[in-house]
Design goal:
This protein has 185 residues and is of the alpha+beta class. It has three helices and seven strands. Helices cover 22% and strands 27% of the residues. Strands 1, 2, 3, 4, 5, 6 and 7 form a seven-stranded antiparallel sheet that branches. The radius of gyration is 17 Å and the shape is globular.
Length: 185
Amino acid sequence: MVKSARMSSRPPATAPEHTPSSLPPIEAPFQWVEDVARPEWMDGNGHMSALNYANAFAKAMGALLQRIQLGEKQGIESRRGVFLLDWHIAYVREVLEGARLTFPTRIVDMTDKAIHYHIEMRAGKEQYLAAVSESIELHMDLDARRPVPFAPETFEWFRAAREAHAALGPPQHSGRVVKIKRKDE
């Protein structure tokens, strides 16, 4: 996990070779992925399996990275990519077959080499909070296998997104620690 003492919002000292040509407009939050809980995603308990929560969140994560030109295709071309450093999923309420799923996404924090983002899984007609995913990704030189700064345009886009998303207030379940909750806590 990236320690908060190492996080800064200073611009990158050096720009990587690949610079995105255009980035999407900033929305608060981003709403780029929609899906439906499919029959094959259900487990023996009649609700969506943990594996398929992870797969659905991975699809939302991939959509974010693709839209900001940090997806797999761009990584092959530029030899820059992102490595997942930390990923937490908190299950809030079960998802049943046929539920409409949306994935509001926020940039929570960033440095010149890392992004911390939070994705909600909203479900059903009511769009209730079903689960949250919180991740930190590190921008990497795929040949040197070392962290490198984002392109200046990408860094500024992350900064603007972080500021727009901060205005929404803190996301639910963000920064949670994994532990058993006792009745006296």
